[in-house]
Amino acid sequence: MSDPSRPPAVGVLDQGTDLTFPPGFLWGAATAAYQIEGAATEGGRTRSIWDTFSHTEGRTVGGHTGDVACDHFHRMPDDVRLMAELGLKSYRFSVSWPRVQPGGSGAANAEGLDFYRRLVDELLGHGIEPWLTLYHWDLPQPLEDAGGWPARDTAGRFADYTQLVADALGDRVRYWTTLNEPWCSAFLGYGSGAHAPGRTDGAAAVRAGHHLMLGHGLAVQALRASRPEAQLGITLNLYPVTPATDSAADANAARRIDALANRFFLDPVLRGSYPTDLQADLASVTDFGHVCDDDLEIISTPLDLVGINYYSRHVVAAPVEGEQPEEYWRAPTCWPGSEDVRFVTRGVPVTDMDWEIDAPGLVETLERVHREYTDLPLYVTENGSAFVDVVVDGQVDDADRLAYFDSHLRAAHAAIGAGVPLRGYFAWSLMDNFEWAWGYTKRFGMVYVDYDSQIRIPKASARWYAEVIRRNGLAAQ
Ligand code: IFM
């Protein structure tokens, strides 16, 4: 719901551009293969874990699948034209592993690669910088059948697949992300089971997280060897984790969740080690025997940039003694070894995902990564919000989403002012799409998609974002 006390959001730029971003700031929008492409059985594509998961009863809302999605596979040239109309400087997309290497091993599928060749050519033809993500959660099903990410071999398979994509597209793509949000792949995929492949095994989740990072490191080495000029990074979904009170118990709860949500990935990738407190917290789950000599050296292979996806903050508290456990305490969770930590809601405005809106958390996150981990250029590779959209007279006035973007871009600008080397921002998402276990019931797009007709309608936020890009900034409030 729009807040009537807020000034009208469209026209926020009318007072002139006061918050200017650095020259060359990379303004973009992001999507992912399974969420938009459709054409699930065309062109030699075979099943991924998300095909299996979404076709399994009870796994997604309404039994929704990515079979058709936004039909982007067939409508790609029109979609790129739309990106150009919005003035996007860059487009972040992911390559579908089961489309370019059906089954997850062996030779490349020329027809699958050809789709991405055409996409990249189309983007370059419109002056849009392609930003390629190698893995956005669609593991080929045969690799899951062989053990999935908890199995070490999957990391090697990922490096082989990376080489195929590098050989085909390396001459035209400058920016590469290895993994998107490995936390989700590991802890939602193998811990809580809310995501594909739907396993509920804390130890498997921890192993999956490690092998995802190992695959990342091997992929960076493969790309570096064949494309020394490429800009290589990983995208992590990071959260500030705040204790609910200033008690020592709540501070400890926050430390534990921060270790699992953030430092589990930041430390190995950017420091070459696992946090010792994380290892102690996980002692009842795993002895980390899956970590082999040299793994951490591979995982911490130097990068050129770090991608950060930011959506919200976690506020957590210690368990209250004698209190009846919440439902989620008994269910498998994505917090192995820390299932008793309580997640607290603060009563602040939330999005349609029930995620609290917290723009200052973006500044905190960017500053933290810069201060504690790296001088590398940072990119916000995803940021956005789901809200219920209504089409009225062919228009979608998504004031809430627009306000979300506006507040987070102000936060991004503040971070730059504080010395963070933030070089770009990608709105999530270019268009409404398959929101994983939520199916098509959650809309994150700047462009509305009518899933029956596949008609695209740029929402008010898209027109506003186009103006931000054109002016390279925002008006002061
Ligand atoms: O839709 C997802 C995307 O695939 C990964 N990052 C978060 C988005 C919103 O949930």
UniProtKB/TrEMBL annotation:
Substrate binds at Q35, H136, N180, Y311, W428, E435, W436. Gene3D superfamilies: Glycosidases. GO terms for cellular component: cytosol. One of its GO terms (biological process) is cellulose catabolic process. Its EC number is 3.2.1.21. PROSITE patterns: GLYCOSYL_HYDROL_F1_2 (PS00653). The active site is at E181, E382. Pfam families: Glyco_hydro_1. Keywords: Carbohydrate metabolism, Cellulose degradation, Glycosidase, Hydrolase, Polysaccharide degradation. It catalyses: Hydrolysis of terminal, non-reducing beta-D-glucosyl residues with release of beta-D-glucose. GO terms for molecular function: beta-glucosidase activity. PANTHER family: GLYCOSYL HYDROLASE (PTHR10353), LP05116P (PTHR10353:SF36). Belongs to the glycosyl hydrolase 1 family. This is Beta-glucosidase.
